[in-house]
Structure of Peptidoglycan/xylan/chitin deacetylase, PgdA/CDA1 family:
Amino acid sequence: MSRHQISLLAIAVAAVTALAPSPASAQPKKAPVDCEQVKCIALTFDDGPGQYAGTLLDTLKKYDAKATFFLEGQYVKSRPAFVKRMAAEGHELGNHSYSHPDFTKSEAGKIRSEIQKTQDAVKQAAGVEPKLLRPPYGLADLQVSDIATEFGMPMILWTGGSHDWDTKNVEAIKKKTLEVAQRDGIILMHDWVKQTVDAMPSIVKTLQSKGYTLVTVSDIVKRQNLQPGDIFPVPQGWER
Ligand SMILES: [Zn+2]
């Protein structure tokens, strides 16, 4: 295609975008973040969408921050509008099972159906399929890894936890999150914890003032070249 054709195409796309009520597919694509140049961090929210996801999305939008949501299929079913909005606003959607069983204590068939039902629910709600798996409780073994391989998904754990589900205290969540924050870090949080959502404006502002860009997990792991079934960061004692 010539440059002229491409620019005509761009004008056509822009015209359509201006007329359409901006579905996710028509959002202007930003240049991808390069975490080698930029000080990146990924906040991840598990088990949702939780009931406070709307407020969290408002905060992320206000500060132009991206996050990753490891969704539980049963709540995708009950709160599909949040999932649609997450995708439309540039956040990443990951698979965190359908009903949160410990995969290392589950039969293969159960694990497969937990993953598949969640893939289907997210696809139905947001039109996209998760590309990353976070096994419930961050627990995986070789069987889980093999099944993740079948689904073409690497498994993503975290470099630091906010302990939000434990403390349920705004100041404690902020303190712990900032303590474990590091360049290219992946931070575990939960959008069903009200105090986490309440702490977010202050956490985001503070991280940004320290030079962080809040990005998705895929932005962070781009350089790792993860293959389906891989786990990152690799937990102690893990051998493939
Ligand atoms: Zn979980």
In short: The pocket of zinc ion is lined by residues 46-47, 96, 100, 136 (CB under 6 Å). Residues 42-232 form a domain with the TIM Barrel fold (CATH 3.20.20.370).
